[in-house]
Design goal:
Helix content: under 10%
Strand content: over 45%
Shape: flat
Oligomer: single chain
Structural class: mainly beta
Radius of gyration: 30 Å
Distance between the termini: 38 Å
Length: 329
């Protein structure tokens, strides 16, 4: 069987209709079909022309509740390898994703009161468990250098290795939900006096914004590319500067407290060491891309895991994905 001799350029497909009766073509007279033909929009050749300039649109996977596609994932990646012997390349990624939910079951104990009558109240200790669910929506910018390591970075190798110092900024919008369950009371006492303490809600939600600046001084990049597939693995470690909401009140020298000015800056800063690993695997013909990442700190562990499935597009084809399938005259 001979292969298709036509080029793989974009094509305009037109469908024409003819009517047959008992195997005989019906003349195109008064009963003419309206319309007699349909023009279908251009079929774009989606085969990636390279892996240097790509945009991605897809979904995140939350594996905690099973393999479910949740929320939009998008990214724009620019990969510029070093071309000359003593030159340095660059990799840039702008992205938005949701890391997987973290669910933790914690035990708690608290002393509560409830009114008995006008002059006394019950004081008791409540014990139970609380399920904490943490979700993080992230917007980030990641850039790292590509420094050749002699023969290990030779483009003819199956896998190229580069030294990669990096910088990353991540804005995390974090939502924590606490749900109390399996509680029981003990040590109930009757105390005389007024009571104004209320039990905590069964379900509580806390929303915060955190900003992380990561400077990776020790990192490597592994690259494997062919005409069919591209694999990029980035691993780095370094210093992390985290900005997070601070306390809403400050304590004065005399023991009194004052509220912060709402127009002020209530954020606090904390330094730590971090580790980050990012993997991208892209197939050239369909553009299907599997991406996974993990980030964690050393002193105060804050693990973030992400898995996404997306489609990669050449930059010149981004606008075409929004065109209708059928082009009406």
């Amino acid at each position: 069987m001979n292969g298709d001799s036509l080029s793989l350029e974009d094509k305009l497909v037109t469908l024409k209709f003819e009517v047959y009766k008992n195997g005989v073509l019906v003349p195109d007279t008064a009963n003419r079909l309206i319309p007699a033909e349909f023009k279908i929009g251009k079929f774009v050749n989606d085969t990636l022309k390279g892996f240097r300039y790509l945009a991605y649109v897809g979904t995140n996977f939350d594996l905690v509740d099973g393999t479910k596609a949740k929320n939009l994932f998008f990214a724009t990646n620019v990969f510029l390898p070093p071309l000359k012997k003593k030159s340095m390349g660059m990799y840039l990624s702008l992205y938005g994703n949701r890391t997987m939910s973290r669910i933790d079951s914690l035990n708690f104990q608290e002393r509560l009161t409830s009114r008995r009558d006008d002059t006394s109240y019950y004081s008791f200790v409540r014990q139970g468990s609380v399920k904490m669910t943490t979700v993080s929506d992230n917007l980030g910018a990641y850039v790292n250098g590509l420094i050749k390591l002699g023969g290990a970075s030779n483009p003819s190798n199956l896998i190229q290795l580069y030294l990669s110092p990096s910088m990353e900024f991540v804005w995390r919008r974090i939502e924590q939900t606490g749900e109390i369950s399996r509680t029981f009371n003990k040590d109930t006492l009757v105390v005389r006096g007024p009571s104004d303490q209320l039990p905590r809600d069964q379900v509580t939600k806390l929303q915060t914004n955190q900003f992380a600046f990561n400077i990776g001084f020790a990192g490597i990049t592994l690259i494997h590319e062919s005409k069919d597939i591209c694999m990029r693995l980035f691993m780095t470690t370094g210093y992390s500067s985290l900005y997070y909401p601070g306390t809403a009140k400050k304590v004065n020298s005399d023991g009194t407290t004052d509220s912060f000015d709402l127009l002020g800056d209530p954020y606090e800063k904390k330094w730590d060491m971090f580790f980050s690993g990012k993997l991208w695997i892209t197939e050239a013909v369909t553009g299907i891309t599997l991406q996974a990442e993990v980030t964690n700190n050393l002193r105060q562990s804050r693990p973030y895991y992400g898995v996404t499935l997306s489609k990669a597009f050449n930059f010149q084809n981004i606008g075409k994905i929004f065109q209708p399938i059928i082009a009406r005259p």
